Amino acid sequence: MVLNFFQDLYDSLLKKTNRKLINDSSFVVTDSSNDLYYSLGYKSCWIAVKTSSISFNTIKGIFKELTSELLVFESINGWTIISGETLPELDGYKGSYTLLTILEELSITFGESQYFGNHRTVGYYAWVKFVKGEFIRGYAHLSEKGITFLDHGEELTTIEKRLFNELEGESFLPDEDTVLSIAEDWSIIPEDLKKINHPI
User: Fold this and answer.
1) This prediction's pTM
2) Hey, is 83 helix, strand or coil?
3) Cα 39 versus chain centre, distance
4) Which of 4, 79, 125, 161 has a beta carbon 3.0–4.6 Å from 174's, enabling a disulfide?
């Protein structure tokens, strides 16, 4: 399980932030040949799982009561995207602990899982990577409050080093493009996704 000190950290941050982010995921939906295609990336949160197929029994087993409003999309380049209104966020609350636990379980089952959050309204930018149950990297920043409430990992990933170096010594503050650049490097940008039409 995810280390208990994360729970203590989030309990502490709860008192500092005194608010909860709302996952008001925005989807750009297009209609092509009577099929609906979704594009995430902006004002949305999603999980990328390294698998070309995932059963709904597995989804239910890992997400439990959160499955009711999840969207699961057909895989692209070996990655399956999961999103929806019930997806927890790295917001410094209990949902943060829940999300990390879900990502851990997904990575144990499928090898690798990632999370991305991108909300320009409040300046919420986050990315997390788990590999085979190990918490490799995690970062979450809320510009509205000027708080970085997660910065986990012994070192930056290659794409982060490149993005940081481009700032030439300036203080790093992520934005929408930062999240998408990391998503593209780690897995895929979630565009033109076709929802799997099976009830969860």
Assistant:
1) 0.79
2) strand
3) 15
4) 125
